[in-house]
Please model this.
Amino acid sequence: MTGGFPRPASRAWRLPIHSPERPGSLRSLLRSLLRSFRPLRSLIAVFSLLALAALSGCGSLLWGTQQAPIVDATVMPVEPASAPVEASAPEPVEPEVPEGPEQPKKPKRPVVRPHKVEPPPPVVQPAPPPPAPPPLIVLRTIERSDARALLDSKVQKPDGKVVGRAVDLIADAAGKPREMVVNLQGFLGVGDRKVNFPWGAFHFTPTAKGPPITLNPTAAPSTVTVGKPSAPQLPLLDATVERANGAKVGRVVDVLIDANAQPQAVVLDVSGMVSADRRTIAANWSALRFVTHDKELRPELDLSDAQINATPPYASDKPIRAVSPAPPPAAPAAPPVASRPAGISGPGAPAAASGAVAVSSARAVR
Model:
């Protein structure tokens, strides 16, 4: 007897190692069959393998042990422990208000919020237009009824008898007419002679249909005092008008006189100045300057070629357009300089004031 249990008496009562309920019993049975039928070992082996595959499935073919069956366990749900309930705060009890007459509710004052005033958009000033170019010339219109051509105009006596024709005008250095040269008629052209009469001896009527110039009956020819030098005078007809630089402008071919015996314009022949064609223009008498060169009186007029070209031509049957050079543009005025009181020196102080201060300080030092 070994241990605490009795040992069996014979081997017949021993249980096989492998229980018939396990897959290993089929294996032992197969071995015993093969030992009994050795000739048919190969055939039986084939059939036995097929039988084993059909009986034991894939697990018996691989000679593996079968896993224990999985028994589903019953899970009893466990109630979760309830969370402690927080104690709620007691509700506030409103104090009782004794009933009484209702008080009128005060009206709510409307809240006036200042509106945000947006500043007006800046006014964009349009760009000023570019300044107009300065005018090139100045034109003055003279009606034909207000002035009459002097050259070759008939001169008559107060009784209407024609005595001659005007051929020239003589002016002094101030531009005032002094004399008129009249070509007195002889008999059938014989005995014609040119006589100078004082300018005041004539009366002008530009609107008359007859002769526009009347000679006073008491007028006497002009006389030259011998031994006294006369003032320089200038016969205008055929005189050459020049610019200040000596360039030629044109030649005087006529003078226009108004009813007050005042010259209004001169007619200049400017042929060859701007074109080769014959062309005449009228220039204002006030635009002329009378300058003495080498003891001779000469007329000057500052008209450039462009100004001459811009002047309308002179025509005997159209209104007179007398030209003058355009004045130069005025220079911008300088800002006034603030004057300093006398006795104060410093930058910008007048020279005389600073000099007076210097002299007085020098005397004080002495």
User: Anything to note?
Assistant: The mean pLDDT is 75. The radius of gyration is 72 Å. The chain has four helices and 16 strands.
